[in-house]
Amino acid sequence: MCTIPSYKFVEAPFNLAWGSNLIAKVIAINIKGASIESDAGSGGIILTEPDAPVNLVNLPLITNANSVGLDWQNGANDGGSPVIDYRVSYKTGMNLEFVTLESNIVSLPYTAKPLLVGIYYAFKVQSRNTFGYSEFSDAVIVLVAQIPDAPVEPLTIIDGADLKIDWIAPFEQGSPITSY
């Protein structure tokens, strides 16, 4: 038996592509010489994990006060086997580790939910083929928020030459109101 790491076949002198089919033949050698070649073995495909997803973005038209819309593209190399699904991970605040939010995602765009309003989330994505998971994508950081609620009808008072307008601040939906 002999073992050859599969990555050796995608380097010189072989320069095969990931996903190439390998078929082995064996020759036995002793002091008297070499045998004839064996029949071809059952073969195998050169596989590795896919490249990390790229261009991970927030989708503002989907993101609101309790969910975030995400989209991304596959990396350049599928590792010799098509990407079958994705895994989304996240962290918040000072958390050092990313935690899996959902696995086995097969359609895009993806909506991460339920999330807490007013919190910044960092998201990363991994793709998976039959060999395993890719490295993480670059992170995207998103504030879970949406436009504020409408103010209730204001109260107007004439005070001499001035008009005073008073209202109750609406719910800010996760992002402080900066002006009226």
Topology at a glance:
Elements: E1 21-22, E2 29-30, E3 33-34, E4 44-45, E5 54-58, E6 68-73, E7 85-92, E8 99-105, E9 110-112, E10 120-128, E11 140-143, E12 155-159, E13 162-166
Antiparallel strand pairs: 1-4, 2-3, 5-6, 6-9, 7-8, 7-10, 10-11, 12-13
Give a description of the structure.
There is one protein chain. With 180 residues, the protein is mostly beta strands. The protein has 2 domains: 46 residues, no CATH class; 90 residues, Immunoglobulin-like (Sandwich), CATH 2.60.40.10. Helices cover 0% and strands 33% of the residues. It contains no helices and 13 strands. Strands 8-7-10-11 form a 4-stranded antiparallel sheet, with no helix packed on it. Strands 5-6-9 form a 3-stranded antiparallel sheet, with no helix packed on it. A hairpin with a 6-residue loop joins strand 7 and strand 8. The mean pLDDT is 90.
Helix content percent band? under 10%
- State the helix count: 0
List the helices and strands in order. EEEEEEEEEEEEE
- CATH architecture call of the largest domain: Sandwich
User: Biggest β-sheet: count, sense, barrel?
Assistant: 4 strands, antiparallel
The main sheet orders its strands as: 8-7-10-11
Q: So, the CATH homologous superfamily of the largest domain? A: Immunoglobulins
Structural class: mainly beta
- Write down the overall mean pLDDT: 90
Shape: rod-shaped
CATH hierarchy class name of the largest domain:
Mainly Beta
Q: State the distance separating the first and last CA atoms.
A: 76 Å
Number of domains: 2
Number of strands: 13
| Low-confidence runs | none
| β-sheet strand percentage | 25-35%
CATH topology of the largest domain: Immunoglobulin-like
